[in-house]
């Protein structure tokens, strides 16, 4: 089964040195869809209200075969009566 590498960028670049075996590009897409929210779950509380998380998936030859981005935008509302 081919190995794919899920590099991430969330303000800093993180290279995946181990990779994950996936049967095909549909499986790569599913892994990215699971992976991005997991990263965001732990990283959003650390750094404000605006954040983008990107995954760049490389195949074994190093070619990027898929990319996905999850964006978080928070807004504090002022509900005080005037």
From TrEMBL:
Question: What Pfam families does the entry give?
Answer: DUF6894
Q: What region holds the DUF6894 domain?
A: 3-71
Q: Which InterPro entries match?
A: DUF6894
Q: What is this protein called?
A: DUF6894 domain-containing protein
Look up and give the organism this protein is from: Methylorubrum podarium
């Amino acid at each position: 089964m081919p190995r794919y590498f899920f590099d991430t960028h969330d303000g800093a670049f993180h290279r995946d040195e181990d990779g994950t075996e996936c049967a095909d590009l549909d499986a790569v897409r599913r892994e990215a869809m699971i992976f991005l929210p997991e990263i965001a779950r732990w990283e959003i509380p650390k750094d404000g209200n605006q954040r983008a998380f990107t995954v760049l998936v490389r195949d074994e030859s190093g070619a990027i075969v898929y990319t996905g981005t999850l964006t978080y935008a928070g807004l504090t509302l002022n509900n005080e009566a005037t």
